[in-house]
Design goal:
heterodimer, A: about 280 residues, mainly alpha, globular, B: about 425 residues, alpha/beta, Rossmann fold, 2 domains, 6-stranded mixed β-sheet, 5-stranded mixed β-sheet, 18 strands, about 30% strand
Amino acid sequence: MRLVTEPPHTVLRPSSGWVGLNLGELWHSRELLFFLTWRDIKVRYKQTALGAAWAVIQPLLSMLVLTFFFGRLARVPSNNIPYPLFAYSALLPWQLFAYALTESSNSVVVNERLITKVYFPRLVIPLASALAGLVDFTIAFPLVVVMMMWYHIMPTAAFLTLPIFVVFAAAAALAAGLWLCALNVQYRDVRHTLTFIVQFWLFASPVAYPSSLIPARWRPLYGLNPMAGVIEGFRWALLRRVPFPGPMIAVSSFVTTVILVGGLFYFRRMERTFADVV
Amino acid sequence: MSTLAIRCDGLAKQYRIGEREKYKALRDVLTRAIASPVRRARAALSGHSPIGRQQESLIWALQDVSFQIQRGEIVGIIGRNGAGKSTLLKVLSRITQPTRGLGEIWGRVGSLLEIGTGFHPELTGRDNIYLNGAILGMKKEEITRKFDEIVAFSGIEDFIDTPVKRYSSGMYVRLAFAVAAHMEAEILIVDEVLAVGDTQFQKKCLGKMGEVAREGRTVLLVSHNMAAIHALCSRAILLEQGRAVRDGDPLETTRYYLDGFEKQADSGVIDLRSASVPRSGKARLFSELRFKNAAGAPTTAYLCGDDMVLEFDIDPPFTVSDPILFVGVDDSLGRRIFTVSSQYSQSEFPAFERPLTAVCTIPDLCLLPGRYSVSVCVGNPYEWSLDLVVNAASFDVHASDYFGSGRMPPQELGAVLVKSHWRVANGVGPR
């Protein structure tokens, strides 16, 4: 028998306008977050012949295409880094970002059944989708180490800051994903524009080209694209062949924080109608 | 500490109808977006619907619902489809917010609006127990502790490591209910879950619900199964068009519900004069058929065990000597369940010469719940069917606690309810 304790008291009433984030409740649901992430990961490569190898094949093929067209044909500079390594080191955080962004943007719509049948803090859903992206990243990461050994590039102390940029990429994806998934509930247009958004964002980010192509005084402005800071930071931490892109990273982190916090509040504001509209 | 579990004060919920569909057409959205992008964007960001308000139709799914539920009460919610039952459960389980009013809940709520919510077909039974448990609000440690119990309850030990997509629908339901049944919530909110699964398993579920009740937990249960409501609930609330119109003893409330049904839906009067009524036989004798209950009130809804009264208005165009009346009752599959006749019950009628009304009473209606159709026939020994109207009308039988046990045989074990008495004859028992 459980001891008699004061039962939790819940008040149901209409709310309007902006509401608090209620992070305590979110923390209380961390196990659910874990299970939903675990589900997404487990289901991701079910019934595929190649399984988790896809997580490596995708960035690998992208790297080959970029190397051929941008590296060989267009002779895009790569800051004295061998072009394949230059491309792959950007594709890693990019893949994480693109996957987490797409999945979290669709998450609430995809999990419609859960939303309309059970109550739990709704933030768990886009969070779990974004977190599941980390798995592909983990699988694809060792290849970059192999490539570095191939090209005789030794990691430096900056290597230790890599996790910061990984979290940064996931946060940037979640920041945009929160806005998009809340909008997606009302406007399915989001789903259709998502492919375009991701593609456009890829060209706007220094994946195939270095940000050094952009005049130095505009570079902090380029940081308004959070992925510019993430990718250049990631490359710096991994390869250390470029000076630390401080101002750009500062701008990118600021932008990410603003979008993320705004996204959290916007999501919380919209979530009360999810079950009725989705 | 309060002894209240749930208190609702003027709960109301409004829905916009048709909104869901409107948004899916990209073309419409684009044309509207081009027309007024700024207004739309602003509307989207502020969370308001940008579609012109004048063309929205609003409905109140719940209106001014107030009640209090003490801890340990088992309350049945009944009402027709669309009466607001599911909306009430959704508001109480926090899935959606009320538009007006206030609700208060003391205790951990476990809501079971659908069983198997979040089950993933690719995952194994084992994985799904954890996933579903977590979704229902159970802690991992709690699931692990009860894992064996859950598997045993579901009875699918051998398939626990098989992906759920390979399960039969019965196995799926059993596993899903097993997880739900082991929630440790103080308040259970359950929507029509008892309607699924095979009979054996339904019985198990009913037993589990009774057990939950005895543990002193609070249960809020939506069901169309009146027998279950009678057997399990200490109280029933009737919703009609979003309002709680009746709240009290389950027997009285269900009775009121079934009566009210008929007043609005069907007068129980069937006009047989119309030329469009398909009939065979050489004449048009029946002019009207009326269904009534024992008290003489028109109805087409009965409870198992009710008396059914049929009144026939007969308008003979010629004299019918030695008339005999037949009433045949078919179930929804078209199987003849029984036929009654004035002939078998030795009721001799005088010759039908002028308009008259014949009354047939079928006491103690021993039919299983369901919809039945009635065929009527008038004839005489010289011509069996002077006027035969096949499927002239239909009536409904609703479950009641016919045997006083809260149980009823399933459809596949027969079509009628027959009472029986049991005892053990050997030993020291009375002879």
